[in-house]
Amino acid sequence: MNTKIWAIVPAAGIGIRFGSEMPKQYYELAAKPIIIRTLQRLGDVGRISGIGVGISPHDTTWARVTSGLSEAVWSFVGGSTRLETVSNGLDELVSRGEGSAWVLIHDAVRPCVCAEDVNRLIDAVDFQPPGGLLASPVNDTLKSADEAAQVTQTVPRANLWRAQTPQLFPVRLLQEALIQAGNQKLECTDDAQAIEHMGLRPKIVACADHNLKITQRSDLALACAILSQQESNACSG
Questions:
Q1: Quick one: angle between helices 171-183 and 82-95, nearest 10?
Q2: Contact between 197 and 186 (Cβ < 8 Å)
Q3: CB of 55 closer than 8 Å to CB of 26
Q4: What is the dihedral of CA 63, 64, 67, 73, to 10 degrees?
Q5: pLDDT at site 235
Q6: Which residues neighbour 67 within 8 Å (Cβ) at sequence distance 6 or greater?
Q7: For residues 173 and 77, what is the distance between their CA atoms, to the nearest angstrom?
Q8: pLDDT-based confidence at residue 217 (cuts at 50, 70, 90)
Q9: In a 10 Å sphere around its CB, with 0-12 CB exposed, 13-18 middle and 19+ buried, how is residue 45 labelled?
């Protein structure tokens, strides 16, 4: 059994909802680009052999902000969609002879992830296909609404989870899942959904809400507060 783990970080997007000319992964968070903080957090996980970052072919910022990173971080050309970028990263791993390894897919704009949560994911999955993902339980009351924004029902929240990243899968299984999803034009808002389309059931590993995904500028202040709290509590692996 191959227990080698690689990480893929898709970072070829432009972050339209963030409302900035600069891709949001390069926006500064507590004096460092968001993506640098994300990569440093992943670098704290000793079981990750290396980190591949998918960047846009038109990216002019990556080379300027990554000079001090570990040699374990490498880049590859991403695609026009997240699915394409992840697929390109998987192809790169296969070309390196790592098709039988495992891969952690993590959002470039989740800089508050803790090594301890990533390690718990790895331990819980225990290299058993199809893999698993970090998620947090839904605590809010959920409403379904019609096109006029009028409530149609209250949705029971029992057994509902907010999917997060990292998500951990065998390289070749995820590669096959994404190929099938692309060929069938299936919607996949995360990598686990591609696995689900194959009829497989990834394992959910609970984590706290601190693993924030930065989507809008207002998220920066919250992320900064989370980082400060984590650093005072020595968030580590």
A1: 140
A2: yes
A3: no
A4: -40
A5: 60
A6: none
A7: 21
A8: confident
A9: buried
Give pLDDT, residue 234.
63
Question: Are the C-beta atoms of residues 211 and 134 closer than 8 Å to each other?
Answer: yes
Residue 208 has pLDDT above 90, yes or no: no
Lowest mean pLDDT, pick from 57-61, 127-131, 233-237: 233-237
Alpha-carbon distance of 94 to 226, in angstroms, equals 36
Q: Which two tokens stand for residue 226?
A: 């989370």
How do the domains of the chain map onto residue ranges? Answer: 5-232
Residue-wise burial string across 102-118, b where 16 or more C-beta atoms lie within 10 A, e elsewhere: bbbbbbbbbbbbbbebb
Secondary structure E strands in 78-183: 102-105, 132-137, 142-145, 151-155, 161-170
Pick the CATH number of 5-232 from 2.40.30.20, 3.90.550.10, 3.40.718.10, 1.10.10.10: 3.90.550.10
